[in-house]
């Protein structure tokens, strides 16, 4: 019998074969890329974008979207799509209570759209797939930053192009802090590190090859745009912001030593209680913030960040930490009994001063059901048997309402996974197949993973902006081929 992994492989190949020409698939499968030895290149840290000017309550930035040749593989210039010439794009560090205003200039020959994933923003700045920046024109996006501190990320969202655009480089980290949280004894500065992880396929000339839904044939793992790099760390406590910026690759992070992470945050911000975990699932578009403690590690030790869910051995090891010398750090840390030992704290172990949140702000008044699947007849990925139609609203929601959405992955026979992302809101995952979701995977979330056959219920309150927003699978190759809908928040009657 086929095991689950074999079924997933066959399902993906079957889906691709339905949609994409045989010659295109054969070409992508046959072209061997240049070989890069794992842990032979240093990790790059994306530059932090500096404001062009600031006022008492607003920081202003200028960014340019353009094609750029960069070195990704050693000694080879690769054509990429970039924000400000960086792959991935520059990191934006924003602060709650201060507005961020970004003027995005589109230097591409076609339209472009920029979505700030996980942000609570008005529809005019959401980066709707049907609201593009024309070639040679600019658009101003305004982000109020009136939400919890969180690791967000921005990326292209142009209709029918988002999959390839993000794959070729159009994404970056947006790190929102809250002055209230500054009292927390968390690593900062050089010890607060964003890691944007993704897979890629290169041809023999070192150029990116994009074939939709071809996750089995993207053999190279990139971290901050570098292939399986090494990271020279000090004997300190590090805060790593894990961002899955891939189209299709699923990560289950672990450390080669077996030591646990301390997960402190999910998609939309801090967990109510940090939790020690040996493995952390982060699927496309999901984020997790973790603390990794190198203070007691002997100098000269090498530790690998690994993907326990890798479908091939060459993709298992992602990043190598090389621990340097020096004294250990004496700065006070979050006091959680049992960490970094293996015991997981209980949900009742509150931490003085840790940010609190209330995930359920109202009683749900409506339940909706959305079924995700590959339509074998049309070769399209659909929701409720419908592909994306920009003129159709799939859910009309009264402002202030709390709703439960039941999301179903109906691709059991083909073994295809999906994720569901809602723009505008952070939600709570109530249960999966009738069982409560673990607290560290329940809230705050803006993207939820769905294995084949999963029935997941989420609860969200739509109490900020009015307007029309997308919801879609964030396996971006699926969204590109129609697995997307729209909800519209309207005034309460």
From TrEMBL:
Pfam families: Cu-oxidase_2, Cu-oxidase_3. One of its GO terms (molecular function) is copper ion binding. It comes from the Bacteria. InterPro entries: Cu-oxidase-like_N, Cu-oxidase_C, Cu-oxidase_fam, Cupredoxin. Residues 67-179, 378-491 form the Plastocyanin-like domain. Belongs to the multicopper oxidase family. This is Bilirubin oxidase.
């Amino acid at each position: 019998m086929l095991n689950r992994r074999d079924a997933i492989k066959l399902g993906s190949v079957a889906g691709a074969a339905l949609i994409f020409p045989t010659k295109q698939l054969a070409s992508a499968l046959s072209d061997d890329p240049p070989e890069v030895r794992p842990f032979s290149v240093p990790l790059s840290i994306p530059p932090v974008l500096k404001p062009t000017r600031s006022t008492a309550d607003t920081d202003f930035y200028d960014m340019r979207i353009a094609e750029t040749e960069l070195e990704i593989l050693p000694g080879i210039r690769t054509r990429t799509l970039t924000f400000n010439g960086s792959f991935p794009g520059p990191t934006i560090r924003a602060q709650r209570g201060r507005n961020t205003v970004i003027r995005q200039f589109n230097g591409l020959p076609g339209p472009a759209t920029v979505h700030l994933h996980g942000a609570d923003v008005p529809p005019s700045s959401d980066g709707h797939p049907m609201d593009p920046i024309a070639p040679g024109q600019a658009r101003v996006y305004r982000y109020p930053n009136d939400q919890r501190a969180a690791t967000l990320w921005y990326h292209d969202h142009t209709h029918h192009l988002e999959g390839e655009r993000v794959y070729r480089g159009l994404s970056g980290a947006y790190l929102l802090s809250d002055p209230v949280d500054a009292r927390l004894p968390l690593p900062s500065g050089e010890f607060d590190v964003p890691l944007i992880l993704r897979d890629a396929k290169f041809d023999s000339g070192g150029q990116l090859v994009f074939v939709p839904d071809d996750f089995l044939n993207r053999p190279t793992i990139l971290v901050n745009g570098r292939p399986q790099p090494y990271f020279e760390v000090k004997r300190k406590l590090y805060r790593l912001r894990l961002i899955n910026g891939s189209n299709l690759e699923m990560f289950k992070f672990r450390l080669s030593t077996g030591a646990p992470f301390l997960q402190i945050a999910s998609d939309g911000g801090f967990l109510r209680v940090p939790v020690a975990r040996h493995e952390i699932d982060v699927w496309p578009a999901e984020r997790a913030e973790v603390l990794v403690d190198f203070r007691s590690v002997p100098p000269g030790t090498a530790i690998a960040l690994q993907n326990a869910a890798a479908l091939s051995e060459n993709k298992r090891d992602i990043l190598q930490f090389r621990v340097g010398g020096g004294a250990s750090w004496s700065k006070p840390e979050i006091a959680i009994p049992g960490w970094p030992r293996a015991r997981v704290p209980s949900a009742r172990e509150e931490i003085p001063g840790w940010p609190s949140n209330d995930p359920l702000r109202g009683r749900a008044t409506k339940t909706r059901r959305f079924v995700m699947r590959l339509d074998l007849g049309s070769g399209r990925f659909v929701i409720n048997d419908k592909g994306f139609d920009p003129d159709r609203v799939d859910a009309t929601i009264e402002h202030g309402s709390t709703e439960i959405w039941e999301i179903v992955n109906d691709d059991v026979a083909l073994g295809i996974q999906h994720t569901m992302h809602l723009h505008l809101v952070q939600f709570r995952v109530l249960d999966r197949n009738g069982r409560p979701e673990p607290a560290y995977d329940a809230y705050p979330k803006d993207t939820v993973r769905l294995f084949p056959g999963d029935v997941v219920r989420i609860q969200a309150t739509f109490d900020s902006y009015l307007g029309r927003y997308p919801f879609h699978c964030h396996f971006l190759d699926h969204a590109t081929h129609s697995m997307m809908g729209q909800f519209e928040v309207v005034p309460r009657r």
